[in-house]
Amino acid sequence: MGSGVSRASALLLLFSIAACADGISTGPAPYGFDVEPRQRFRFEAHDQTDVDGVPVTVERGAEFTLEAEPAPGGRLELVAYLERYVSRVKGVPGGSSEFTLSADGLTTRGPADLKPLVRGPDDLAPGGGRIGDVLSQALGGWWVEADGALEGTPWRAQQPLFGGIRVIDWVLLSLPELAGLDRSNWSGRRPLPPLGQYVLGVELPIEYERVAPDGRAAARIRGRGFLSRQGIEMAAGFRGALEIEHLGEADLDELGRVVEARVELRVRFEAESGSVVRSRHNTRLRCLSCADRINPAPGASDKEEPDGGLSQ
């Protein structure tokens, strides 16, 4: 029996022990984590930002594992372990850049006139230890209720190499809040992910609805959100009006696992100085450990881009 199966069995046993210790029936965990407490995912993102007519493109991709751990009060803690991450930036002053982190080490590339930085798994990582050991540390996590609602705020590891990897925020936005089978519409909230270099620390209200799946999924949940703020400060001395539109879809299998989720954020910020920032953020989350009921396609390369939009 492989180590992954053994760990999953141990987590299932932990769920059972925790439920007995509480003396209550906590019901099924969200997203099928009571059936499969260790799930692997691939995350892809395409960010297009236009600042006063100057476009900047960011491509991001990650493979990671989410492990579910029972927490007091019937909550569930979802902990993310990164396997691989790549980010490519195009259009910024000075030239394109790239950052890659995996079990093979890390690579950073900047403008053509600068020599790439390459470090192997046995090289020293910032903060101490080997680079090859960094991925054994948790990237971060968050606590959810049985309906998928966020409890508190997400936590993040202090490892310096993880500092610019903001996968957790977008994954949390991709996983919808849930409702009973007798409800077709409900409301929820998710933290707004960082928009490039801007971390606003606000929540995005989302209206969810259960819609008919396309035949490949057991269920489909659609989310729509809108946020408008006047006089918000994106950065020091950069104040203005912000509008954000959110569109999301999540396909679930019969076990409740999120087999695929797609998110699109459309952002417009008009600064008091007259500058205008427009951006569109498209993400795609796919379960790699789920049965191929929705996505039988072969594995994607680092260069694969997510879909450009959502079905309406």
Search tags:
312 residues; mainly beta; 14-stranded antiparallel sheet; 3 helices; 14 strands; globular; disordered N terminus
Brief characterization of the structure:
By secondary structure, this protein is mostly beta strands. It is built from 3 helices and 14 strands.
Question: Could you please describe the fold and organization of this structure?
Answer:
The structure is a single chain. The chain is globular. By secondary structure, it is mainly beta. The model is unreliable at 1-5, 10-25 and 293-309 (pLDDT under 50). It has helices at residues 3-22, 131-134, 167-174; strands at residues 38-51, 54-70, 76-90, 97-102, 105-109, 117-119, 140-144, 150-156, 185-191, 203-211, 219-235, 238-252, 258-271, 276-287. Strands 1, 2, 3, 4, 5, 6, 7, 8, 9, 10, 11, 12, 13 and 14 form a 14-stranded antiparallel beta sheet that branches.
H-E string: HEEEEEEHEEHEEEEEE
What is the percent of helical residues? Answer: 10-25%
Counting DSSP E segments of at least 2 residues, the number of strands comes to 14
Can you tell me the residue ranges where pLDDT is under 50 for at least 5 consecutive residues? 1-5, 10-25, 293-309
Output the number of helix runs.
3
Question: Average pLDDT across residues?
Answer: 84
CA(first)-CA(last) distance: 44 Å
Radius of gyration: 20 Å
Largest pleated sheet = 14 strands, antiparallel
Shape: globular
Helix and strand arrangement:
Blueprint: H1 3-22, E1 38-51, E2 54-70, E3 76-90, E4 97-102, E5 105-109, E6 117-119, H2 131-134, E7 140-144, E8 150-156, H3 167-174, E9 185-191, E10 203-211, E11 219-235, E12 238-252, E13 258-271, E14 276-287
Antiparallel strand pairs: 1-2, 1-14, 2-3, 3-4, 3-7, 4-5, 5-6, 7-8, 9-10, 10-11, 11-12, 12-13, 13-14
